[in-house]
Amino acid sequence: MSNIGPILMSVLPSVGLAVIFWYVMRAVIRADRREREELARIDAEDAARAAAQAAQKQPPAPSE
Prior knowledge:
Strand content: under 5%
Structural class: mainly alpha
Distance between the termini: 95 Å
């Protein structure tokens, strides 16, 4: 049981780096997800704006 201290001290740096790596990758993935959502929102607004402009320029349909 007296060997647990050195064993934990040898594993601790690897565990610490794994936690840091996980945190950084999580932040990158979340940032990418937010960026994609924002770009989709902007694209939807642009499409709606273009559709509204096209509807204003189109002459009314002739009635039969």
